[in-house]
Give the backbone structure.
Amino acid sequence: FQLVESFETMTTRQTLVVASLLRNDLAGAQRRASELLDTLGLDDVAERVPSELALPAAKLLELGKCLATSPKVLLLDEVMSGLTLAEAERPMKILRELSANGMGILLTEHVMPIVMQLSDRVFVMSFGKELAAGSPTEVLKNEQVLSAYLGGHVE
């Protein structure tokens, strides 16, 4: 998700139909695409090609392509990169709903307000090794994390 990659000549709807074909026949893929357009709030850009989408909508389309496959677990890498916190609200709401409905989500993210709002458990790594693990609050208070990422204790 760090880079948005979509089919250049397909509309948002067509992109979601193609992604949905992995688990559905054409009629089912069309229904799934319509559901995703509604869930993601992309109905108003359904007939636009990705190059016409603003970054927040393009990021939601990327998420939609993942969801079209009906995963049990989502593996997301920097899904909010390039978005302001205000722009990240919609995808965060969707991810919280997915998690509440039983979908597993493994998120790699560096924007702490996003991590704090989305995570039940946080793992902090430094130079490829686990530095800390725990609830977002526990990790945020961890002296090793503060030292490694913020230069020391922060009040």
Observations:
- Residues 19 and 65 are 6 Å apart (CA to CA).
- The longest helix spans residues 85-100.
- The radius of gyration is 18 Å.
- The mean pLDDT is 90.
